[in-house]
Structure formats: structure tokens, C-alpha cells
Write a structure and sequence with these properties.
The protein is mostly helical and about 375 residues long. The protein is built from 16 helices and no strands.
Length: about 375
């Protein structure tokens, strides 16, 4: 495909995606996460971690969950309280559209230069996670954009900018603080100091939340509730291990305690991934950092975390594109076959039927595992 036609197809796919997102704005049942943010920022709401209190602000049939982020972050949403809810929602939707445009622009500049494959990955990857996040009104698209800027800064050796952006995103989702470990790839004298400084800055923010929010335990309880979420809304290694172990131990063996099996399954996933990542770091210490290594680290982090929500997979979209772009024909066929098997095929055969149902619920996580395995082929071998 010529460069001109490539950009034309890219533009058509991008226009189609904007049309799909615009159509979702007509459904009043969408953007439930923004309702949570808007209600949590109210001066009249003393406890944003009580879903019933948040629900009292909205006189409709929607059922809200509780606020899930650190207490002080809710004050950042106060800017929307200047407006009535409908106006605030329209402003937020406009902001998310701008975030999408910036996200696509930055990925295109860094990675693709008009490659239609990038738009296909954005549309379809990880159970269409960007579309789901937009429809829910979740803040993850904005946080993913900030992380993308942070990674760009890291590649350009703007380490302080990288640290600041990572800490900002970690104030909401926490897990991005682990990205400070990427500073190990940089041989700059200030790398270790910036890593420690970023960690201390984040811990200081957590400390401020504990000081100015007396009922900090309510936040911890709200976070604890999310660990009981399984399946398609929370596809991660721990949830997968828990569901599979429960099926094996409780349903097939007739035993009651399946938690110990879940831990065995979970660490059998985590330990090899961490070990391979350590080997990668040792091999790359003297080689310039690039998107190949960033992709391995990002996807490796996602597949070992005990909590990684469906929206969080937006963070992996650039990494997925980088890896898929380099796959050979056999690997592409394997990836497509796996995607097909995880697409909700219904089979009444015992065990097989359950495994296909389970794979559908954890499609995003399983596809991330396959991409991570293929990505190891891109990692250079260490020097003898």
C-alpha cells in the first residue's frame, strides 16, 4: 500500500471510530464513571466511598459504584461542579475526544506514520478497551495519554518530565508508579535519584491523603472490594487463577478450599514473567532503550498485576501495535486463532465448554500473554 493510500485508510478508520464514539453520546445510560466523579466532587458528599450517597445526587435508574481513587483526587473534578451535570458531561466528552485525537496523533508520530494497522489495533485490541472506557466515562484514556507522553519523555532522556507524569497518573491508578523501574535502563547519574524521588513524592501524596482524610480506611475498603471482581471487567492473572482454581478444586475435586491452588497458579505465572524481564533488563543495560523493550515491560507488568481492569488495557495499545507489526505469518495465524477461540464460542462439551467460556471472560489478559511471549523474540540476546 502506497503512503498516500495508507494515510487515506488510516483517516477513514479514525473517522469511523469518531463516529462510533459520537453515537454513544446519545445514550443517557452511558458515562456512569463520570457520574461517580461528578458526585464525588460535591461539597455535600462527605463519604465518596458510599455508592448510596453518590446515587442520591442523580434521580435516574442508574446504579453507581463508589469512588475508587485516593480521597484528595476527587477535588480535581471540582472544576466540573461549576456547571450543571449535563453541561459538565458535554465538556468531559469533548475532553475525551481531544484525548483520543492526541493519543492517536502521538502514537502515529512515534510509531506508525499513517499505518492503518494502528487504527485497527486501537479499534479492536483488548476487547475494544478504548471504546469501553469512553462509553463508561472512565478517566483511563487521559491517564494513558499522560503515560504515553511520559514514555516519549523517557526515550528523549527527559527523565524529570517522565517521573512527574508517572507520579501524576499513579495518584489515580497507583500501579503506574511501577513504571519508575524503567529508569534502570538509563545510565544517567540522576536515574536512581529520580526514581527514589518519584517514589517519595508519590508516598508523600498518599501520606497527605491519610492526614487530611480521617476515614482513610474507607478508601482501602473500597479498593479491597475491587479484588472480588472477576471476569471480563477485571481480567488479570489473579482473577484468572482464582476462577480456574475454584473450578478445578471445588467443582471437579469437591474440595472447599481453592485459595491455595489459586496462589500456586498465580505465582507460576508471575515468577517466570519477572525472571524473563530481569534477564531482559540485564541484556539491555548497555543498549539504547526503544519501543521494543518498552512493549515487553508494559505487557509483562500488565499480565502479572493482581488487579488490572478492562479499561487499563488502553495502556497496552501502543505496545500491542509494536509487537503485532513485527510478527511473522505463523505468529499472526496463532494470534488470530487465539482471538477467535476467545470470542465467546459456546460448546456443551464438559470442561472444554467451561475453558472456552473462561477464555472469553479473560480474552484481554490471554491475548496480552500471547503478545508478551511473541515479544520476547524481539529482545536482543545478551553479549557473550
Amino acid at each position: 500500500m502506497t503512503h498516500k493510500w495508507s494515510y487515506a485508510v488510516f483517516g477513514l478508520l479514525f473517522g469511523y471510530f469518531l463516529f462510533v464514539l459520537a453515537s454513544e453520546t446519545q445514550d443517557s445510560g452511558n458515562f456512569w464513571d463520570f457520574k461517580i466523579y461528578y458526585s464525588a466532587a460535591s461539597e455535600e458528599i462527605e463519604n465518596p466511598y458510599d455508592a448510596r450517597v453518590l446515587q442520591s445526587e442523580h434521580h435516574d435508574d442508574s446504579k453507581l459504584l463508589s469512588y475508587k481513587y485516593l480521597p484528595l483526587t476527587r477535588y480535581l473534578f471540582k472544576v466540573f461542579r461549576v456547571f450543571e451535570y449535563e453541561t459538565a458531561l458535554n465538556i468531559y466528552i469533548g475532553l475525551m475526544i481531544l484525548v483520543l485525537i492526541a493519543f492517536v496523533y502521538l502514537m502515529n508520530q512515534q510509531l506508525s506514520r499513517g499505518d492503518p494497522l494502528l487504527m485497527l489495533v486501537l479499534l479492536l485490541a483488548f476487547n475494544s478497551c478504548f471504546y469501553l472506557a469512553f462509553r463508561s466515562g472512565n478517566i483511563m484514556p487521559l491517564l494513558s495519554l499522560l503515560i504515553l507522553f511520559a514514555l516519549h519523555a523517557l526515550l528523549k532522556d527527559k527523565l524529570l518530565q517522565f517521573v512527574i507524569l508517572v507520579v501524576i497518573t499513579a495518584c489515580f491508578k497507583v500501579f503506574p508508579i511501577l513504571l519508575l523501574g524503567l529508569l534502570w535502563f538509563k545510565q544517567a547519574h540522576s536515574s536512581s535519584k529520580l526514581m527514589i524521588g518519584g517514589l517519595l513524592l508519590f508516598l508523600s501524596f498518599v501520606g497527605l491523603n491519610m492526614i487530611f482524610w480521617q476515614d482513610f480506611m474507607l478508601f482501602l475498603e473500597a479498593v479491597q472490594e475491587t479484588t472480588s471482581e472477576f471476569g471480563i471487567i477485571n481480567p488479570n492473572a489473579w482473577s484468572f487463577s482464582s476462577e480456574l482454581s475454584h473450578f478445578i478444586v471445588s467443582h471437579k475435586l469437591g474440595l472447599k478450599d481453592a485459595e491455595w491452588v489459586a496462589y500456586i497458579l498465580y505465582f507460576s505465572i508471575v515468577i517466570p514473567v519477572i525472571w524473563k524481564t530481569i534477564q531482559l533488563i540485564r541484556a539491555r543495560m548497555l543498549v539504547p532503550l526503544d519501543w521494543n523493550v518498552l512493549s515487553i515491560c508494559l505487557i509483562g507488568l500488565a499480565i502479572i498485576l493482581p488487579r488490572f481492569k478492562d479499561y487499563d488495557y488502553i495502556l497496552l495499545i501502543p505496545a500491542a501495535y509494536v509487537i503485532i507489526k513485527q510478527l511473522n505469518l505463523r505468529q499472526v495465524l496463532v494470534l488470530i486463532s487465539a482471538w477467535f477461540l476467545c470470542s465467546g464460542i459456546i460448546v456443551d462439551i464438559p470442561i472444554v465448554g467451561y475453558l472456552l467460556e473462561l477464555s472469553h471472560s479473560y480474552q484481554s489478559w490471554l491475548m496480552a500473554c500471547i503478545l508478551w511471549y511473541f515479544s520476547l523474540k524481539m529482545a536482543p540476546k545478551s553479549s557473550p
